[in-house]
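Ex. 9. Protein: Lipid kinase YtlR.
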Amino acid sequence: MYYFIINPNSRSGAGKKIWTDLRQILQTKNVSYEEHFTEYAGHAIELSRRISSSAQEQHPVTIIAVGGDGTIQEVLTGLKNPAFIRFGYIPTGSGNDFCRSTGLSHDPKEALMTVLNSDQTLSLNIAELTCQNSTSRFAVSCGIGFDAAVCHEIGISPVKSFMNRFGLGKLAYLLIGVRQLFALPPVSLSVETDAGDRLTFKQVFLTAIMNMKYEGGGFQFCPFADPSDHLLDVIVIEGMRRPKLTLCLFLSLFGKHTRFKGVHLLHCTKISVHTPKPLAVHKDGEYAGFQTDFSVSLAKENLQLIIPR
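Predicted structure tokens for Lipid kinase YtlR:
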């Protein structure tokens, strides 16, 4: 039995049409499945929790998220018994950093074929974000600063929905990203890791905590991040003037920015972040509120992700 958790509103409603096509394939192949549609923010958490609660070593459960990176993080947050879950992903969103980092197909039909036909899995780290005594999970990245400010503005601006109607969702991120690049003031920030780091940075532009190498639609902020190594990769960018910062961001698309003065890379399994004033935080591109303190750690158990043979 395959359990599909579908966000029909991903990519401004395109997710519903994509699922209609995928459903026809499942029916043609006489696949035994259940479909569960999300109806509001956080619904995928509830669906995932209910479906996964019966998973056992002798009776593993296969759950497939159909949506964008934000759908994945909700499904992960709700998962119970992750060691006994086979997890699949079919992308219908606009970012798809999860696919870039794990080698999954960006094509929904090809991704479905992987779920149905592959017996190959990747042992996937599950990252956990704790803010104000509330813990949720994410797959790709969490951040504060530039990337989070872009995610926050995207969430409250009508620009993305408008652009998605014409298949130009990435352009919305570009426009808002350029605005934030020149408008966002740098901040001071301190971090503490379980690897023994206790560091304070000034004039920070971006801090990203990465489980995977890509975020933000293709930026390789931590180009050596491995989603199965049980480590978090952290980048802090500080003390750069705008022209140098612009070049640094451009080169990060190719993972060629790491030798810039002002780029700091850390590795850990747990990190705590503090800022003097509340700043926007994101997880997998979804706004996670304004915070002064938060921590990120790795769950004890990895998740088995279905990948191509």
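Check your answer against this statement. The CA atoms of residues 101 and 212 lie 6 Å apart.
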